[in-house]
Write a structure and sequence with these properties.
Blueprint lengths: L26 H16 L5 H5 L7 H14 L7 H14 L3 H17 L4 H13 L4 H17 L4 H14 L5 H14 L2 H14 L6 H16 L9 H6 L6 H17 L4 E3 L6 E3 H11 L6 H11 L7 H6 L15 H11 L32 H6 L4 H17 L1 H13 L6 H13 L5 E2 L1 H9 L6 H13 L1 E2 L2 H17 L4 H14 L1 H6 L1 H5 L15 H16 L9 H13 L23 H15 L4 H21 L4 H24 L8 H17 L1 E2 L3 H25 L5 H20 L7 H12 L5 H13 L14 E2 L1 E6 L11 E4 L4 E10 L9 E6 L5 E4 L6 E6 L2 E15 L8 E12 L2 E4 L4 E8 L6
Pfam families: INTS4_8HBD, INTS4_C
GO cellular component, one term: integrator complex
Subcellular location: Nucleus
Length: about 950
Amino acid sequence: MALAVKRSISEINTLPEPATIVPQITTHRLYKRIRRNACKSSGTLTSILSYVNMLEDASSNDALQILLKITDSMHFDESEFPDAIRKLVEHFQREPESAVRVKILSLFADLATETGIDGQQLIDEVIKLLKVEQSAKVISQGLIVLEKIGKSFTPSVAYINQMVFFAKVKLFSPSHNVQRHAILLLGVFVLVSDAEKESLELIGKYTDSPDARVRAQAFRSMLTLGERGVQLPPSLYPRACASLTDDYECVRREALNMVFELGVRHPEEMIKVQDSEQEVRLIDDAFGKVCSAICDLSMNIRTLAAELLGGMTMVSDEFLHQTLDKKLMSNMRKKRSLHERSAAHFASGEWSSGKKWADDAPKEVISADSVSLMASGACGALVQGLEDEFLEVRTASVNSMCKLALKNPLFAVTSLDFLVDMFNDEIEEVRLRAIYSLTAISRHIILREDQLETMLSSLEDYSVEVREGLHLMLGACKVSTKACLTLVVQKVLDVLLKYPEDRLSTFGCMQRVGQKHPEICMSITPQLLLDHPFFDSAERDVEDPAYVCVLIMLFNAAQHLPAMLSLFPETTIKHYAYLRDTMPNFVPRLAVGGDTKELNLIGSTGSRQFLETLLSNIQRAYSAPQARQALLKAAQDDLDRLAEIDPAFSGTANFTSVFFGAQLQMEQLQLAATGHSIKAPIKECLLQLIKKCLMLQNLFSNLTIDDQLLVKQMCLRASALNLVLIVKDRSQSALGPCQLLLHIASDASSFLQENTPLIADTFTSAILTKLATVGDPKPGRVYREILPIVQTAAPVVIPQINTNIKMCKARIIEPTENSYSAENVIKVTAGLIAAVPFVAELENLQQSQRQDLRLKVKYPDQNVHIIVPRKRDLKKVMTEQGESESQWRLRTKVLLSHGVWTEASTVEITICLSVKPNNELELCKPVKVHFAPKPVKRGL
């Protein structure tokens, strides 16, 4: 298993040959054989009966230790399970110690979740044992075990009803733990039709239980039923509201979730206000109740309430705006007209005698607070959350304010000042959330000068993420006046002098500012370019970052307002040509001299036609090996160039290029397997083929099932060739390659069984058939069986065009080749450490690949160091629309250290994926920095 691939290697698609029957390869047998070999080599027992038999004469303490050993092993022969379960049940019935009985039940759950044991048999046994059990602790554990067993497979309706009936019986237990776990079991397994009839009401009665844990579990189970599709009626709302003032935090938390859920599910339901005849919408009243929870004593409840507010977007405007004002609006109170008051007085039958002052006043004085249509907790609730002492509450409040503002433009304008105030928070995370929230609602707001001053003061923040976030926000927002834009430009340029490493982020900011303010940019163009109306100004340095920022902003504004071109002096026009060539991603194409037409290759037209022609030419030359190989070599160069000039089609082009490279390597190795000599060393060719197979399987996403089968078949061929050539060479052990072939074949067989419409090619079918018939898969036996198939294998088929393929790749932003050149050498005392700032952007990195990211440092003496970056150094790139789905930014420091060198030499730094031990796939070309460890200076 040492050479077994971390992820199952993939392979190639099938030739359009006659449909062959794919054998149902014994994947279970192959995996089990490898697992048994591993267990045998480590000397561990594999028979569960050998453990269970030891329980017969063991004491309670010894039995507990034996059961723990069984739990630790979990690698058993499944044929022994029925006898083992029977003996465990017998020991349970005669065991006096409840802790041992609890452990036996827990062992049943572990067997159900980690092995292929029959879950229905376990359910029968557990229920049978619990019916005569008296210990509340054991019954509670049994209910937990029933839940785990039921989740491990899909039980039939009969078994579900059996578990539900047993749980309902145990609801009447005096133990709160038994009640709690019985309610939990009901929430998970009760049928939806039964829940709507009686089970929901039955669970709801336990919200009045004397025990807080049972009350909390009752609400939690009702919410679980709601997630499963049960209709939660509005009649549950008063019960949930009453529990909001419970003494226990766990109950208040679940009640708050229930209030939120009912408000979102029944927003237009009308309910009466407490102590009043007035009615309000359920979502409005629920919103007020959630707002009141922001003043809860528990930080967790306040955080939850702040999070839930963001999901209540259907609330009325008057309730929403009240969260930003701590004074209750007068029009939110119930008022009666004079006619209504007179009618009420007449209906009372009381008349004034005139002898006493104000004796005709209403007998029942109604307090103004008692007829408020909105709870006082809703007043300034979000402001209260933003001022909370805990950063979790403040962060949740900022997020909720952003979500509500996105749905309500008027609320976005009102909340702007509060978000700007959060730029001064002492916690960086809160400042970042406020910046990103303001960026998200930027389309609804226009910034004033007083607001800009607060924002721009944060531009000098020590955190590079805060500065980049502010650059993103300034580029997304619009300003109101010329003075505001001038203030933005001046502050951004001043900060750029202090932090020159923010150059690229500043360029992007000025680009978006110019695109959003073309008219204002036109009014300040002479001022920014220092262009005098009568005298010629000195030509400015085009390498000056501040001047480049100004030009980028003006050129992007001129793209939307061509009249600006007449204001540019001649030197600026010359600088445009230079910047257009050096920064095409920041400087747009303008109608300045010459032809303004731009050639665009679109993936659906030009690039696709080119690739279709290329593949058809290879297909026509398929029967001629020499012509096919020549075309494949030429096609690799063409596809690499296509990936550079058409980013939308780069994933498809790179996938096809790597596939062709693997195909060429495979054909050369196939000649070596038949006894012919080849030019390149066989070992080197094998390493290249394995690397290309790993690239096909790990660097590309959005593959269709046909593409996945293609890759799996390619890897199956590669592993078969690897085994054949290693056995022929006889210089190393073939046990690892043999197990690798069995693993890949098992994976391919499972894939074909799961996707029955797919048809494997003749090579794959033949290999899987041979491996299925091998009784003892030793390397020599497997080699003799597959050798004729490998030697006579037909060429692999070419892939179909899939324009959705994306390739994982990286771009190193810092350091650059010029930042640490021969004139700027990193000098450090030998043996000490030099920290080099490293910034890279990654595209199409899958979430599951984050932990495989590595930095590779290669020194001139060929020593290679692999560095694992910290998880917090890798974050998603923020855009105006929020977090990017496919782009990541890695910002860390690379530590360099070495012995004494006579002169400075280059150290290569690159970013890669560790897909397998000692196999790293580079995601970009390495950057070279000059490094010079100096000898230690001896003092006098």
